[in-house]
Design a protein that fits this description.
Mean pLDDT: 94
CATH architecture: Alpha-Beta Complex
Radius of gyration: 16 Å
Shape: globular
Low-confidence stretches: none
Number of domains: 1
Distance between the termini: 48 Å
Number of strands: 12
Largest sheet: 7 strands, mixed
CATH superfamily: DHBP synthase
Strand content: 15-25%
Order of helices and strands: EHEEHEHEHEEHEEHEEEH
Length: 204
C-alpha cells in the first residue's frame, strides 16, 4: 500500500496506474474520503464490496462530466434541470441506469452519479476516461472518514493506494437525491442539504 499527498506530482499517476490494474484507491472529495475502483471491472467491484462488507448494495459512480454520466444513465428533462444547478457539488443524484458498461453489482435499475466540486478525483477520472466507484472509505455501518487518520485499519490495509488530501471541506456524506420521477426526492440528508432546499424553491 502506497500513501501519497494529493498535491504531489505523482499522485494522479499512482492512482491511475492502480485503478487500471484493478486496484483499490482511497481518494479525497469535497465531502468525505471515497473508495475507488474501475467501475467497469466486475472483479475489482467485487473486491471492493467484500472489503466494505457491502455486497449487493447499489453502485454509485464518480464521473468527470455529464457527458461521461450519460453513457451509463438516463437523463430526463426534469433531471437535467436540477443537475445543471447541483453538479459539480456535494450531491449524489440517482437516475435510471442504462447499458452494460458498468459492473452492476446489485439488482435494480438505478445508479448514483457523483461529480464533486474537488479537483483531484475529477482530474483523475478525466485522465482515465472511465468512471470509478463512489463509496465512502469505511466499513458498512461505520462513520464515514473526513481525513485519512479516521479510516479504519482494515480498509487501509485492503487498498493499494491512499491519496491524502487533508480534511474534507464538508466533513459529511453527500446529500442523495432521486431524480427519476417528476419530483426531486431526498433519500439522505447530508452535505449541501440546506442549499438544496433553497435551490429547490428557486427551480419550482
Amino acid at each position: 500500500m502506497k500513501i501519497v499527498k494529493a498535491d504531489e506530482k505523482e499522485a494522479i499517476e499512482l492512482a491511475s496506474d492502480s485503478l487500471q490494474a484493478g486496484g483499490i484507491v482511497i481518494y479525497p472529495t469535497d465531502t468525505i474520503y471515497g473508495l475507488g475502483v474501475d467501475a467497469r471491472n466486475f472483479m475489482a467491484v467485487k473486491r471492493l464490496d467484500e472489503l466494505k462488507n457491502r455486497e449487493g448494495k447499489p453502485l454509485s459512480i464518480l464521473v468527470s462530466d455529464m457527458g461521461m454520466a450519460e453513457q451509463y444513465c438516463r437523463f430526463t428533462p426534469f433531471a437535467k434541470k436540477y443537475i445543471e444547478h447541483l453538479l459539480p457539488g456535494p450531491y449524489t443524484v440517482v437516475l435510471e441506469r442504462q447499458g452494460d458498461g458498468i459492473a452492476w453489482n446489485a439488482a435494480g435499475d438505478t445508479v448514483g452519479i457523483r461529480l464533486p466540486n474537488y479537483e483531484f478525483p475529477v482530474s483523475l477520472v478525466r485522465g482515465l476516461g472511465f468512471p470509478i466507484t463512489s463509496t465512502s472509505a469505511n466499513l458498512s455501518t461505520k462513520p464515514a472518514p473526513c481525513k485519512v487518520d479516521e479510516i479504519d485499519e482494515k480498509i487501509r490495509e485492503g487498498v493499494d493506494v491512499i491519496v491524502d488530501g487533508g480534511m474534507c471541506e464538508y466533513k459529511e456524506g453527500s446529500t442523495v437525491i432521486d431524480l427519476r420521477g417528476k419530483e426531486a426526492v431526498v433519500l439522505r440528508r447530508g452535505a449541501g442539504y440546506e442549499q438544496f432546499l433553497k435551490l429547490q424553491k428557486s427551480i419550482l
